User: Fold these one by one.
Assistant:
Number 1:
Amino acid sequence: MYKAELIINKDFRKAEINPLLYGSFVEHMGRVVYSGIYEPGHQEADEDGFRKDVISKVKEMGVTCVRYPGGNFVSCYNWKDGVGKKEERPRLREIAWKSIETNQFGTDEFMDWAKKAEITPLFAVNLGTRGVENAVSLLEYCNLPAGTRYSDWRCENGHEDPYGIPIWCLGNEMDGIWQIGHKTPEDYGKLAGQTAHAMKSLDPNIKTVVCGSSSTDVATYTEWERIVLEYTYEFADYISLHQYYGGQERGTDEFLSQSVEMEEYIQTVIGICDTVRSKKRSDKKIDICFDEWGVWEIPGGEVADSVAARDWEVAPAFSEQIYTMEDALLFASMLMAMIKNCERVKAACQSLLTNISAAIMTEQGAGVWVQPIFYPFSHMAAYGRGVLMESVLKAPSYRTKKNKEVPYLDQVAILNEEANELVIFLVNRRNESAELNVNLQGFYMGHEAEHTVLFHNDIKADNRCNHENVMPLCGRIALAENTKIDCKIRPYSWNMIRVQVKQYE
């Protein structure tokens, strides 16, 4: 057992956490939409074909916002194919994921679903094969009152009130050679700037997200961000970050260390944003929308090969990854990395919502179950609200093969002043228990704290066969002093400590 100390002072506060940090992502890919959130005829389907059992899990997960409709899908998508009478919508060959798109689920269906799921929509526009006009017409359809062509079309389709979608993503991964219509940073920057200008001329209330690099592994990373921002700074509000981590085969220590790399990624992009800001002598700060993130195990080449090898199908099942206890630990630390940087990371979308790299899994014509990653997300979404505290951790660390120093204990502390509650999230990256002492300065507590733990003796355990195999347990910690918490943190575990606090004047 190793020892660790965490110091939290009531006066050392970092930033308010934006609830949109707890978002997800829906793309027309595999079974994410069809038989995921939408399955007419299912015993749990409502009058619109939306699976009520899935909506219930989305609410339980605490998802606050959802990005739609892509993803790679959006770069070939014409939104006009997915509205109007369903019997008149075209069946098309969707080339991003080699599938048949029926267009039975489109903009209006998503917005109806979003209302029922009680989430904020984030919309992406096609800047791969289309451009300014297509983006502006979609914005008019969604956000403008009746009286002109596309807003009147929305009314004719049964939606009189504007949707008021607040955030718009300008394309998807436009740096990637896999992206249909991928571009140079100069070409994308010009197009994104023109599109954002036009969209904000039509609806000044919206915020826009320009594409950053699709990952830190692409050759143009950092240069892409700089060039794109130089073209778009006046009209952009956010820049996107995307990151998936695999590498389970390299061992648990190396695998779990990747959240430290994610923190470095965020800080690097913030630095680029602020460099361009200085160059332009602007008072405006560009924030971050981390609009795709998650754990990914299947090699990209294997995914591409499986897509290329199959026939054209409607909603083919592929890339339906099964997550382990180990995956849940990295997943939790990735979300914690964004919380740590919440002064600039203002929105994030876990990828994806159902079936593909997802917390929620559906069985076509049958039930729904959740993976281990569901639980850290749901607890952080529920209780990670308020002000991020500047905490100090004293704990041992280890060095990775990349010569990065990684603390065995990963943590964030959050003060919810409305609830008079201090919440601490922790990941133990070591196969050894920790004896943790939490020292509160300027706070005093009651007689006990709540301690929720996600742990399994087998770090490779999953929920595929036994859907309740990896689940959190909740207990209590008796407090001997009103300014200290002493507790044991289990090996390879995710933890949440909640305690009622008062502040000294």
Number 2:
Amino acid sequence: MMGDSILNLVRNHATQTPGAPCLSFETETLNYGDMYQRCRRVAQALAQQGVKAGDRVAILARNSPAQYELLFGCGIIGAILLPVNWRLAPREVADILADAEPSLLIIEGDFRDLLAEAEMPIETMDLHADYPAWREAASAEAPEQPITPDTPALMLYTSGTTGRPRGAVLSHRNLSYMNRMAGELWDFPADGVNLVAMPLFHIGGIGYGLSAFGRGGHTVLMQQVIPVDIVEAIRQHRVTHGFFVPTVIQMLMEVPGVAEMNMSSLKCMLYGGAPIGEAVLKRAMEMFRCGFIHCYGMTETAGTVITLVPEDHDPGGPRAHRLRSCGLPMPWAELALINPETGEAVSTGDVGEIRIRSAVNMLGYWNKPEETAKTITSDGWLCTGDAAYQDADGYVYIHDRFKDMIVSGGENIYPTEIENALFEHPGVAQVAVIGVAHQRWGETPKAFVVAREGARLSEAELIQFTRDRLAHYKCPTSVAFVAALPVNGAGKILKKEMRNPFWLKDNV
């Protein structure tokens, strides 16, 4: 069978070690043989449902084995899985469904209210009431469709700079690299146990979760992030590896009694998705006493493309300065730092935009050729929008972002989304949103509002106004009312100036 297929991640071990534990969720553990049979039944059931190669199958639900059954089942027939973020507002969910036009939506009953603004008719299936019987009624003899490395397998939506959702389309080849990453860089053994707690609508959840499958290891899947349950799962299942965003690592350290718990099974804790404070990282290293790996990447690169290995986590040694680095590019990823204004490469030590050329780069954005062309150059370089510099040894240090994206608790938030929502309020004349430091979440959105003449606005009113239109994690946690926003001669708002403490002091 062809190597660049995600099907091989589970199929090979279903043949070689069918009785080995594959996936544990709550009180159930599936071995590789059982898991592969489920995936084949799902494939057959989808085909009987009329799902064809290239069709999208959406799931709106918290983490469950169904996401992986559907991912592999879709892979067998050449369909595309679309996990939808259940933290979004109904309007945002409606936009995604309208853009993707899925043939089938599998939904957890709790989230049916999120379909309130979906105007298109979508065939739905309840995850708990209908899905298990639907799957088990199908034969495990599903006919496989011809799959190439570039066959789309997964679509994950991100917000663009305009605030409109964009579906990043990832191929079998993109996702199959997770196996190589786990073996070559994370030292994941065949008897390893991988904990997956991050949401499966993120690449750091569903993509990272593939790492154990390819190694023949055991995946422990959490329904959602509950720190005390994660700590208990590590202890109970003797977890060896896990990926967490920095805020979750902080939460784990706050679990009562965690310092006294036996976590000797942990070999490696991977982290990324947002900046981490050096003090937090050092404390975590002391508490968990395992290797740490920093992962830099994005949905559009199918996850990690730059990594800082455990040997470079050396707080008291000669490499202590590398704790501020995100590491070195993966062997299969070319990196360039480019001045976005000139298109020229910058010198060592100078700041440029991170660009990546790799086999893990996405195929493109769904139905958005212009957005794709802005992100991926004609010669295959993906423009990340992140600003960084390299030292003489090639280590990459994130400096800032050329784009205005805010990273709060590992979630990407584009200020434009918030600004567009606030502009709908009749009392708002001008608005600009920036990210400000937050002790727990790293960053949080702050809105600066110029009120219309005669309007009487309050911070609480505007925050609630955005909550009625956006996912709560995207909403500003504070609003400042100002007489004017700083602009240049062309009238463009100068957000760089707004981040200046002196401007904040004089205007807020």
Number 3:
Amino acid sequence: MIEQFKKIFNGLQRAHGCTHVEKKNADGTKLKGKSFVKREPVTDMLWENHLKGIEPSLGIIPINEDNKCSWGCIDIDSYASFNHKQLLNKIREMSLPLVTCRSKSGGAHVFLFTTVPVDAEILRNKLLSISAVLGYGNSEVFPKQIKLNSKEDTGNFLNLPYFNSQKTTRYAFLENGEAATIDGFFGTYERNKLTPEQLENLNIKRKQSDFIDGPPCIETLAAEKIGEGKRDNTLFHYAVYAKKKWPGEWKNKLILFNQNYMIPPLDDASVERIKLQHEKKEWGYKCKDEPMCSYCDKFLCKTRPFGIGGEITFPLLSDLQKILLDTPYYRLNVDGERIQFDNVAPLQDQRLFQRAALEQINRVLPTISKKEWNKLIQDLMDNREEIDPPAGSSKIDQLQDHLEEFCTNRSSTSATKEDITRGSVFQADKKHYFIFSKFYHGFLIKKKWDEKPQFTHQMLKEHFKCAEDRMVIGKKKVSVIVASSLERIETPYIPKELRPKDPY
């Protein structure tokens, strides 16, 4: 069972996700579950613990080291009110080879599986089109990237189904809508997995409509009819299309669209208001607004005569990751393409962000207002994923390596107290004695160490429990550092708390 489960959800091997399942307080309120990425291989024990229900539950990153995937997922983030039956009916009507699972939140994870790994870009684009036609175009799609930008990039993970497989709430649905056992899931997987050729030729059926030359969202909405709460935005959006296709008679087309596709039609005053807005100004499509964003298929839209075409539209920025180095660096997705910043500056300055996008992914991005930009970045920061840095990359890790090298190479059983004034290390009673200035100026600087002396001194005290003492050497008392252990002590280093009076 474990081997079959592993084979189905094979992904990135050098890292994985962990999630502690959400629980409830005594008053019934929901606690937020904690999720994090571990830069460690996915072991058999992790797979086994997941299926047994031993926390943390396992998350797998679908994009592998070769930027290929054998599975992808539409993550419909909803809670108990989500209508799984309605979703299953839609999928069945469209004859889509999808496997739907109930997610941890009560929403749905809609999987697309392939027999062998395929290019992540191909799988992601196909899922984006499927999510649009299903009406969940604003949902997250995994893989979230089409390419990992380095060997340190961990991508984004998805929590797997069948946590605590015998009593799970994260089950797949059978064709009849009933919950599937894990064996039932294996059968559903076998019936729906696609070869690369089948994936390429997968036909995503859309309902017949009169607007196949325009944005797919209009085509789908018109076929389903547009009810209350969606009418104003849709009619405004349609007006952009009508002006492109029928520049001389778009006003009459607006009236006909309202009469034929709105349930019930908007009143005359509302239609006139929208007419007036478009008479005064040339508007672009409102792709980010509901209900259009739920039915958005950007890639298909670009191919249509009256779609977004050559318009430079603002991309979807998503999945900000903050890598917790001493000076953090950042990664995020731009329409699924990965870009990275060495510091926070491009998130503060839109122009620097545009320059980075042009350099890294060859994209020219439009400028949005400062207010819009600040809100966008704040939303990304509020939902950021924090990732521990690669082993050995933090300043503390580097200092540990330098300290070990210095004490090992410059100490010997024959060294005396007098030798430490010449830059050596005196060793006695399992302790290392040295002069800080000899360590800093005579050793660290040559290693291109760039922290200031007082910060370095404080790091030795806080993270390696180094003490300062006075040692009599000859006729003088000399200030020395005493290192009882060369191992790192896990305590947070916060330079801003350093006081100027700290000695060095």
Number 4:
Amino acid sequence: MKKFVDVIVPLPIANQYTYSLPQEMEEMVQIGCRVVVPFGKKKFYTAIVTNVHYAAPEGYETKDIAEVLDSSPVLLPKQYEFWQWLAEYYLCTLGDVYKAAIPSGMKLESETLVEYNPDFEATAPLPEKEQKILDLLSRDTEQCVTQLEKNSGLKNVLTVIKSLLDKEAIFVKEELKRNYKPRTEARVRLVNGEADEAYLQRLFNELSRAPKQLMILMKYVELSGWVARGYALKEVTKKELLEKSGGSAAVFNGLVEKKVFEVYHQEIGRLDKGISDTGDINPLNIAQQQAYGNILQCFREKNVCLLHGVTSSGKTEIYIHLIQEVLKTGKQVLYLLPEIALTTQITERLKRVFGHRLGIYHSKFPDAERVEIWQKQLGEKSYDVILGVRSSIFLPFRNLGLVIIDEEHENTYKHDRRAVWRKSVERFGRDKQSIVCMEECAELIQAVSKRLRGRPDPEHNLAEEMADVTICLKLLQIMYDITDDELDEWVERKTMRQKQRMEQ
């Protein structure tokens, strides 16, 4: 009996989609796993499985999923319940929640590849731009559009590609772009894994006329702990071996060619190991003890408690004691801050108490690190405490026992306005809203121009026009699928350029 899966795609679409499972993949798929699915004629997306069943949909023929990406779920049942609540509360789709929640490195995207047609023969000289693209493809027969644009220096490369496509000089196809690549390390081992003393002696004799190669081999024996054969050999990195032996890459490659060594790549983490030494928790003063006791009493009656205290009154110290109490029960803690800038101020303080048990998560981290933190939280050795901003709530906690929302009153935690903006786009359409955005930008330019000429409008006019443009920027972000991370990266990049210009 044929199996089917219902999936969420990272698009603002209300419905989930049903795909059929090829027979060879039926035992590989679990609820919460990522799968690659075809969408439309040429696009592919990374979808998340929400249901596995035998009920074929009525009215249309299902497509097969293209690939299974996970052997175990990346979306836990509690998370999925949370996603459903978010979609209902904020009047958005599950696809919107998925797009916001999952690090971009875990969402494969299709990217148009341009392929050279070796059978193409031009009947007439080609325009300069088209010939330039063909020359690039003749050296590298398969390139993505963005790569061609960069290498050619052409600003409007799509029109050139379209023209070449019409002439059948090129082909286009969709391929999956993997945004995340695991960090690996080159390591070394003997080709003969069962080598004994006699084998090593034979190698030493063979390399007696190659002293540089012999030196590398002897250093490997030392670093790997081969002499103590009763224990497992230590893994030796290629970098360490060359540094400690003083050998060159060319000499080492000679040993690889002689089948003495083989190089393999081991995946390693990017996450900062941080502070290993931890200290004792500071004792609470009388006022802090009273507040701490009241919080515990409150938690016996309800699941939420509000702690009010002025700046420097010692709230963080109370939080640390609460975290310690929750950790004793084997549960996890999420410590939320209103903005990224505050994380650096409190990170070292928490690190000194919780050490490696503390993880940091926010949008300023490279995407590869956010992917690794997500995967770490799914594993057995997950962080017990996560310190981060609002995006941290999407992390897969297996046993969350406490959520601390520091500075709860800050507006950065609340984004009700986004639901209104999204509804506006849905009601009036992208084209109409785009025109409105251009008009509002023009009105702001006029208002600024009047100020420069000494002819100000009424007092609040400029602020009003700035507010209109601010809303329009948010609408454009929604309409054209610009993520907060992408926008933040560009803002940071532009700000650094401005800083550099001012320093010159």
